[in-house]
Amino acid sequence: xxxxxxxxxxxxxxxxxxxxxxxxxxxxxxxxxxxxxxxxxxxxxxxxxxxxxxxxxxxxxxxxxxxxxxxxxxxxxxxxxxxxxxxxxxxxxxxxxxxxxxxxxxxxxxxxxxxxxxxxxxxxxxxxxxxxxx
Amino acid sequence: xxxxxxxxxxxxxxxxxxxxxxxxxxxxxxxxxxxxxxxxxxxxxxxxxxxxxxxxxxxxxxxxxxxxxxxxxxxxxxxxxxxxxxxxxxxxxxxxxxxxxxxxxxxxxxxxxxxxxxxxxxxxxxxxxxxxxx
Amino acid sequence: xxxxxxxxxxxxxxxxxxxxxxxxxxxxxxxxxxxxxxxxxxxxxxxxxxxxxxxxxxxxxxxxxxxxxxxxxxxxxxxxxxxxxxxxxxxxxxxxxxxxxxxxxxxxxxxxxxxxxxxxxxxxxxxxxxxxxx
Amino acid sequence: xxxxxxxxxxxxxxxxxxxxxxxxxxxxxxxxxxxxxxxxxxxxxxxxxxxxxxxxxxxxxxxxxxxxxxxxxxxxxxxxxxxxxxxxxxxxxxxxxxxxxxxxxxxxxxxxxxxxxxxxxxxxxxxxxxxxxx
Lengths: 134, 134, 134, 134
Prior knowledge:
Helix content of chain A is 22%, strand content 37%. By secondary structure, the first copy, chain A, is of the alpha+beta class. Chain A has one domain (2-130): Hotdog Thioesterase (Thiol Ester Dehydrase, Chain A, Roll), CATH 3.10.129.10. Chain A binds chain D through residues 9, 11-14, 27-28, 31-32, 35, 44-46, 49, 70-71, and chain D through 9, 11-14, 27-28, 31-32, 35, 44-46, 49, 70-71.
């Protein structure tokens, strides 16, 4: 299990007329959260793509507990619960000043860009993650 | 059960560098889909809000089967599976030329704007929906 | 001179907490407007890109006169003022029920995808536009 | 004249299928840039709005020199060129590793939320800015 935390400040563009963060915008917050989680393990998503490995999202689930608002500094905790196979799961918790805003999870699949087919997680990526799972 | 279909064309802004519709953008497609589904029943979401009834999303789940691309004309089928109580559920299927792109569901809750508290679905809304449920 | 009009309905996702369409979202409305303007002339932007011709925006200017709101059905009038060379200019006017919302213009440049360099407007595109300029 | 610099990392959601930052997304980068510029002067935009002062954008102009890409860490330099009256102008320069990506400017107007009418820049805001203009 590996856990990483980032803080993101809500942009005006991301609010809606209810005065809340629009429900669809958390998807891009979680994208930032998982990319930084990987980076903290020594894995650069940009380089993965340049090597021909893509990671499209297969499943996304989110439960909204409280709204977030403009200029809020959100704490997003990302957890990789198990070592990836052909799939990598991230779980997320968003907090504001200690209060739970939402919980979410995404499943992403490793895909070979050339063939468009699923593939196993590259060996070097696995090794960088394995350090955190004993 | 009430089912309604719309067609949406993918905008360039909605693609990402994989050449696919960014996974977070379907949330706003489904927002359009459910608003048009309500409108087809005689319910205008804009008017609901003006009357002080808000409908924030409580749960959102989506499974991505195939990617959609720029300029694709997506068919989104929205189903209201049961009469709403304090909550209204919408289920979605997105197709492109008959092929399944994704399936999703949202649960929204009726909230009183003044008090910020959950409330029951307004009686007139219920009656407009009831016509389709026998 | 060639003029084309489309209507776009404002999505909830596109509003901000002021209750207005977020100022940055008009860029994607104008993208839809110019793509449909080209389509009305028989030119599909998607096919242009598939042929290796890209049209990145070089300049964008917009003056906001009145705000637009959720669910508003905006009329966007797009004008191609002159035949393109290595550059194509579009001018836009957005109206709501006859009232002016904003005016804008974009300059886009024809770029060869392989070389990344500017190129002249393809001959067949020019011919399809020329019909409307006499 | 007051100048402030921030760094923003490009999100995957903000790219398009050309592999570039979508041209419309810079508007929200500049919103972040000007909010942080004001914050550095001791002015919190969120508080301004809570006091009933809104700052809608009146004019936005941008010239794109080079594209930015996913994961790029962009340096955005924001300049307030003169003391605000009923209007406040921000000028922006975006660089990547010292290379110019784009230049832009926005004019925003002070508006009273209740009346919806233009008003002068509040006195305390003016004083906080004046420190930097001699």
